[in-house]
Amino acid sequence: MGLTATKAKAARRGVAKSRGGRPTRDAAIERDQRLIEVATRLFLERGFDATSIDAVAETARVSKPTVYAQYGDKRGLFTAVLRREIARWLAPLAAAATEMHLDHPADCSVEERLIDLGRQLLTLNCSADSIAFSRILTAQAINFPDVAKLAVDEGWSKAVSTTADFFDHLAACGALDLEDTTIAAETFLNMVVGHTHRMATFGIPIDMASAEKRMEVSIRLFLAGAVGPPDRLRGTAKTRRRPAR
Q1: Contact by Cβ (8 Å): 73, 64
Q2: CATH of domain 82-245
Q3: Is the pTM of this model over 0.85?
Q4: CA neighbours closer than 13 Å in the CB half-sphere of residue 95
């Protein structure tokens, strides 16, 4: 009777138990994913300070010791949430860089490719969730400088590095003429999403149609300097190496 009650309790929790009493591997993965999903939602809805481990554990249907064992404390939990969000924000850049490694070229111009990338970056970085995370990070940067550093190292710096890799390949095939692809990447990201994201973080309403027009004009300005002289022979473009970071 006791065993039946234990199984029923485990089922209600949504976590299958192994014979030794611990969750199975699949159940543990499902539990951790649910925990991160719940933590993300609560952090976004309530902010960092108003979100408690108690609330996360109760909503995710896990025990407080489980949360502490996995993440140490609330800062560790927020760091895990942030890492997952950063990976999501970087996905379009990673996909664009990967595409450049393929043997066959894309059936679109450099401008079209950059505008498509810019549109994806705008959508992700100016979403309500992205803006909420930006505000939380700004508010907590002084209290938790290591979390702010993580956002820079794994977020901004990786975005710049991935974009620079993308530009390296465009320069190698003669599509762009760039003196320093890292500086070009920083400039591109600031031009495309920096202003709009900053205004949204300040609480200024954003009209996405206007934001997209601004992004397209910015990309054309960027390309005016990055493509080089109109009569430049693409086949003789000099490949420039990216300075070590």
Answers
A1: no
A2: 1.10.357.10
A3: no
A4: 14
